[in-house]
Amino acid sequence: MGDELFYRDGGQLVPTAFALSIGAEVHKILSSMNGILHQGEFQPSDFSGEISLSMRESTFELFAGKIADISQQLSGSRGIKVYAKEQASFETLIRGQVDFMVLPHDISQPPTRSRDLMWKQILADEMVCLMNQEHPLANNPLRIDDYLSCRHIGILDKDLSEPYFEQNLTQQHGSRNVVISVADFGAAAVMCHQSDYLLTCSKKWAEQSLQAKGLVRKPLPFEYGKVGYSLVWNQASLNDPALHWLYQQWVD
């Protein structure tokens, strides 16, 4: 059609704005074609393609065993690429540049309201408060007044709306004093070890993470709804037998 799709920048080809704008529709077409051309039972050992995932580093820490198992089953593939969520966000899912995303969030709020993206909870969780062993509250029950009087570490996420727990806390009791925000639970836990700041995070991650070892864990002193980890994917992706197989590995 004469439309420029890529331009050269040094040693690489970069997609134009037009190419990015049609990416989501092209992804649907190619996924549908894959479903037609590769009908029948999928054999992981025969797969020679590449699969890509997006998640936070702390999420990878929880699901590393499952990812390793999937990788071993795809013995003939070119491999699995795991991108940081900051690098590959919801837009990359819509365009078909990433196959699946795994992330923690409020179950009451879908990770995204895009009609092209689907989401399914794969792990139920709770929220906890972490603090240094030398923190003044370490040996006492955590009350709401204590929680609000302390300084907090926040977690950055430009894609998700304000968490329900934050909204409910503000409405019912008051706002947290967030003095520093970082990209991930791991970085926040390191800061917890070095300060008197509080970290509100995933209980399952806190139980398993090496970075959270040695920190005191306490239940939150307020209602925060339901939380968990969800798988997010482009609806068109499941037309591809390989991606439908991968989806089943996560939800079964």
UniProtKB/TrEMBL annotation:
<dbReference type="Pfam" id="PF03466">
    <property type="entry name" value="LysR_substrate"/>
</dbReference>
<dbReference type="InterPro" id="IPR000847">
    <property type="entry name" value="LysR_HTH_N"/>
</dbReference>
<keyword id="KW-0238">DNA-binding</keyword>
<comment type="similarity">
    <text>Belongs to the LysR transcriptional regulatory family.</text>
</comment>
<protein>
    <submittedName>
        <fullName>LysR-family transcriptional regulator</fullName>
    </submittedName>
</protein>
<dbReference type="InterPro" id="IPR037402">
    <property type="entry name" value="YidZ_PBP2"/>
</dbReference>
<keyword id="KW-0804">Transcription</keyword>
<dbReference type="InterPro" id="IPR005119">
    <property type="entry name" value="LysR_subst-bd"/>
</dbReference>
<feature type="domain" description="HTH lysR-type">
    <location>
        <begin position="1"/>
        <end position="16"/>
    </location>
</feature>
<keyword id="KW-0805">Transcription regulation</keyword>
<dbReference type="InterPro" id="IPR050389">
    <property type="entry name" value="LysR-type_TF"/>
</dbReference>
